[in-house]
């Protein structure tokens, strides 16, 4: 599909709308709810849903205005239908159905994870399959083989916490802000990653799956051993060691996947893909192996609607009125 697409993304705590024309992003509006959830140290589903209800209309209007188009110019509506927080998803799906039905436009139901993969297909310098994609975010961590734009094969995924979720919990334990990834990275710059030894789980396992719950537990026990005052004093070293363990596991599994199959390029996706040490480590791996590395812009790493529009180009559209019974799926 090369039509002018209006896309909505409300799978978690960011209210997003974008307009794309083929692979060109005409607008990509993201309204973050981070401040609303910071007091809780994480996303509260009910709070997220209420904010989506308040923000979805203005965000869509802003996206259309930025793209300098009207609803009459739009040829298809795309929306995230899974996975995510069910209440949050329902806001986006209901809004998308209303927008599409009001003009009897086709609607494209998009998988959120496919969206992260498809962010690599956007201009400038789109990455053509086949490639290996490492997706690491607050809700998901997986390695995927992307052989064609319409789908991907999961090679390995987290068995418990996602990488971003682990960073959020570590940040909360160390008294830092939300979201935790940027806060941990900032504090870690002042610390010594070798000061404390943290477990890098599953690096000896033959599978490509991930696990971060043991790492989180190790930080809890280490902080208890140190005591409150000493934990505060050594917080930079703890953050540096924790971040090193997260990056170490992600890159170890990435290298194993590269050894098991002949991939021509590596792409990073998800909010954790904005982490500087991870980007540097993956860049070094790619340079050593002579592979192209694809880094999308930071605003396309976190949840956004441009990536949903990108995935919609390779997903079958539902005609009116077939999508009126469409529902969101949490898992």
Structural account:
The chain has 331 residues and is an alpha/beta fold. α3 links the parallel β4 and β5. The strands form two sheets. The chain has a five-stranded mixed beta sheet, sandwiched between helices. It has a five-stranded mixed beta sheet with strand order 8-7-6-9-10, sandwiched between helices. It is globular. α2 packs parallel to α3, α5 packs across α6 and α5 runs antiparallel to α9. Helices cover 44% and strands 20% of the residues. The protein has twelve helices and ten strands.
Q: Calculate Rg over CA atoms.
A: 20 Å
Number of strands: 10
Global structural class: alpha/beta
Helix content: 40-55%
Average of per-residue pLDDT values:
94
Low-confidence stretches: none
């Amino acid at each position: 599909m090369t039509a002018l697409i209006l896309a909505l993304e409300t799978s978690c705590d960011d209210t997003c709308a974008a307009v794309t024309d083929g692979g060109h992003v005409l607008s990509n509006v993201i309204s973050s709810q981070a401040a609303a959830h910071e007091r809780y140290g994480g996303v509260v589903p009910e709070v997220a849903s209420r904010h989506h209800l308040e923000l979805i209309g203005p965000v869509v209007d802003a996206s259309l205005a930025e793209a300098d188009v009207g609803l009459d110019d739009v040829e298809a509506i795309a929306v995230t239908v899974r996975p995510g927080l069910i209440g949050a998803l329902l806001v986006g799906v209901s809004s998308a159905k209303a927008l599409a039905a009001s003009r009897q436009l086709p609607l494209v139901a998009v998988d959120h994870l496919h969206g992260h993969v498809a962010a690599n297909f956007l201009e400038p310098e789109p990455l053509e399959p086949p490639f290996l994609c490492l997706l690491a975010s607050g809700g998901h961590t997986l390695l995927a083989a992307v052989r064609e734009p319409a789908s991907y094969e999961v090679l390995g995924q987290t068995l418990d916490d996602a990488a971003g979720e682990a960073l959020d919990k570590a940040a909360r334990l160390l008294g830092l802000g939300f979201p935790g990834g940027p806060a941990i990275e900032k504090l870690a710059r002042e610390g010594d990653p070798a000061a404390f030894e943290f477990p890098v789980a599953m690096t000896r396992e033959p599978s490509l799956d991930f696990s971060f719950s043991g790492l989180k537990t190790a930080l809890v026990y280490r902080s208890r051993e140190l005591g409150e005052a000493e934990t505060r004093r050594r917080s930079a070293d703890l953050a540096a060691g924790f971040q090193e363990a997260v990056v170490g596991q992600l890159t170890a599994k990435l290298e194993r996947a590269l050894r098991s199959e002949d991939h021509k390029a590596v792409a990073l996706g998800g909010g954790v893909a904005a982490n500087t040490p991870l980007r540097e480590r993956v860049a070094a791996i790619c340079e050593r192996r002579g592979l192209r590395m694809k880094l999308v812009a930071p605003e396309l790493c976190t949840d956004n609607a441009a990536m949903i529009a990108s995935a919609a180009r390779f997903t079958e559209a539902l005609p009116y009125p077939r999508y009126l019974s469409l529902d969101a799926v949490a898992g």
